[in-house]
Amino acid sequence: MSAVALAAETVPERHYTHHEGRGATPHRSNPAVIHRELTTLDARTGMNVVEFGTGSGYSGALLAELVGATGHVTSLDIDTYLTRWAGLIHHQRGLGHVRCHAADGTGGFPEQAPYDRMVAWCTPSLLPTAWVDQVADGGLIVAPLPIAAVPNMTVVAKIRVSGGEPVVEEVFTGGYIEATSSPKDNLDLPGRWVDWENRLPAPSWISIAWRSEDDHLHTGARTALERLLKNAHTEPYAGAEIDLPSWRTFAATRGDHRLTMAGLSPDLWAIGHTTTTTAAVIQQDGTILADAPDSPSLTVLRDWLKQWEDAGRPAPATYTPTLHRTGDGWDLRLSR
């Protein structure tokens, strides 16, 4: 049995996720995914570990078991309510080597650095310099990172830091809530890169990678969203059921700055192509929407889908990951 599986037998999951005093917390990740990420992290006895995104406290409790009483776990979350409750539950269970702090995790936590291991349950806009600087030489970071400047285009990366430089060793399917500078109260709306949002007559939003070309009134984003919501041409996708992790990764790696993501109805994302005059997207359920049957954006979208099918619907792990240095950190990009 793996170390994470053994830890999970000791930690009472529901005691954290549905605590009788705090109630159920919606700010939590799937336990199976937590176990996968922690297996990748390879936290061991005596290590100094930091996690970004306290959530219910369950992941922090697992980390405490993995590093043992001689190790230390620092848990950060932007939401004071979550850190206070998780800290109390840890204390009541006798876990004195876990400390929860309310803080913006994108700046790391230098007070306890350097860290042997670092794991994130929220997605920063890029790999922050502070994270790399606070990891011990040879240490690991396991974190979700964007692969395009639109929401929900993410993978989880295993990153080794050597000589102050991060190198991606593996990527996996996955992603978590966006890291934000204040507690997020609307879990249905992305935390960043939303270029226009409607709340009436029903919630909808759009993110355009060409936002730098838009005006200060967001006319391009507003118009593109309107074209997809009102009198849009619709057609079913002729292919098999959409493999969302594969499709969104493929779309992100096209490098086309006209890439667009939208939320046109609850629980359905749409990915496609827009310009100042045309728009076309495909939803997770396989419905294609466009401003017209002969839309230039629809032609582009159909071509992307054909290329994706011809490539065999590649899994995210089959791409080559590279980190590109920017002023604030590193952008992750995938290529084939």
Features:
Rossmann fold, alpha+beta, 336 residues, 2 domains, globular, 7-stranded antiparallel beta sheet
Question: What would you note in describing this structure?
Answer:
Strand 14 and strand 15 (268-274) form a beta hairpin. The chain has 2 domains: 3-173, 3-Layer(aba) Sandwich (Rossmann fold), CATH 3.40.50.150; 196-310, no CATH class. A 7-stranded mixed beta sheet has the order 5-4-3-6-8-9-10. Strands 11-12-14-15-16-17-13 form a 7-stranded antiparallel beta sheet, with helices on both faces. A 3-stranded antiparallel beta sheet has the order 7-19-18. It is globular, with a radius of gyration of 21 Å. It is of the alpha+beta class and 336 residues long. Helix 1 (3-10) crosses helix 4. The two termini are 35 Å apart. It has helices at residues 3-10, 13-17, 31-41, 58-67, 80-92, 129-133, 219-229, 244-252, 296-310; strands spanning 18-19, 23-24, 48-52, 72-77, 98-102, 115-120, 127-128, 135-146, 154-162, 165-173, 196-198, 204-208, 233-236, 259-265, 268-274, 279-283, 287-290, 320-325, 329-335. The protein contains 9 helices and 19 strands.
